[in-house]
Input
Amino acid sequence: MDQNNDRTRTARPSPLHQRIRSDIEARILSGEWSPGYRIPFEHQLMVEYGCARMTVNKALYSLAEAGLIERRPRAGSFVRRPTVQSAVLAIPDIKAEILARNEAYRYELLSLRKRLASKGDRDLLDVPPAATILHLRCRHFAGPRPFALEERRIVVDEVPNIAEADLRTEPPGTWLLQHVPWHSAEHQISAVNADAAVASLLGIRIGTACLMVDRRTWRAGAAITAVRTWFPGDLQKLVTRFAPSSAAGAVSAAETR
Amino acid sequence: MDQNNDRTRTARPSPLHQRIRSDIEARILSGEWSPGYRIPFEHQLMVEYGCARMTVNKALYSLAEAGLIERRPRAGSFVRRPTVQSAVLAIPDIKAEILARNEAYRYELLSLRKRLASKGDRDLLDVPPAATILHLRCRHFAGPRPFALEERRIVVDEVPNIAEADLRTEPPGTWLLQHVPWHSAEHQISAVNADAAVASLLGIRIGTACLMVDRRTWRAGAAITAVRTWFPGDLQKLVTRFAPSSAAGAVSAAETR
DNA sequence: GGAGGGCAAAGGTCTATACATATCGTGCCG
DNA sequence: CGGCACGATATGTATAGACCTTTGCCCTCC
Output
């Protein structure tokens, strides 16, 4: 019909399946098609856009993956009701983050011990008693100010070549991110008052609110590392933007301890 | 070849493109194929699985969307290096969340005003001076204890039928979630010390660390509502699990104020 | 009037094919 | 010897058709 259908001519006509997808998405997001609305059948859309069913299918499949619609054989595709406010949260490597802000980064190792897994380690990381744990604490500075305090346990058996890392000069998170390729993680974010030790190390007053992030990381089912990080509350904000187009269905939950 | 290829016989043979996808994903996650590795060409996989290229393409397209691989014409598909620790965070409706934990939920409206947008409102919500704002504060109780304190602005012009909601008995978040179908949002999570007002309303001591969540919500580019919620630090934890299979590429960032 | 069977419409998956597009090497030409 | 043009190759997108499963709903039978 229009020139967008003529792929040989226009500059970058943006894939048809993507155009279909965003057309429908726009109508859902604007509220024109509200939850429960049955969107046109694949066959109807295929006629409307003058394309093959596979193309329409790709668009709808993608919308279903994003959680905007629900597809039911024989019945059709329906606009879903949003359930929870979900958001994709990025918790980047601290070193990279500070450098990205054009601030001077400095790293300081406070303590480092290698030992057999304690009871606490086993509960936290689900490792056998014979596992070797590298336990360390360190600080990250942005310019002159302490930016974060970190306490970390690393399961040496899962990451044997950690021995090659010089943890006196290189942050363990950065090293792990670069040398342990892919993993799944669990985060817990909470607010705590700084106790004497934390306050002194972060250069803040006792009782100052801190953002505390606990992260556990697994690869192929085996725990690699557990880390607890404290940020002075006024220094760090976790920011996140969410649009249904980009994020997938959430598999998470909020809990109280 | 095997019975999985014979779709007419087996119980639920799981789509072929999905099997291909998880085969490859497993090899990436296990580290067998580490970052930079060039995975087999579509043509090779198509021979290996004895299927059409479109089927392989669907699997690889999906892996690329999830951010596990990067595809380059002529060059091939490569395992990506993970960049940031991203996580899908769910921030559910407070009422639903408390009820889901089998605790008694109670809602209390503290104040409610309707007025023209102030300078602060305009900066926050990007609305014209003539916009009408509903400004309210309320508390959420889990059992006998205050669970959260909420301060909210609603752009009445965008949600005219908010007038139908009885905000003296119904939490505005719950109402909005049910009546304003789809939207995008921005979250900021930080830790603050409770000031006198917050502490008194949450029944905690002044200075107690609180998790503060700021959320702004848009629909079709127009701001709907902005809300700031305080949780006593020991009552609320944001928990999130992340596996590369489920989450999409993050579009977020961490910032300092 | 209710229960069950069967039909057909809709999505789910896959094939075989086609052409577009991006880019890496190679080889030609200045 | 260096730079540029071109072709080979891998991905990107789309088509038209096929067959399957699922399931809403009608129609029949009890």
User: Anything to note?
Assistant: The CA atoms of residues 39 and 77 of chain B lie 6 Å apart. Chain B touches chain A through 73 residues (CB under 8 Å). DSSP finds seven helices and twelve strands in chain B.
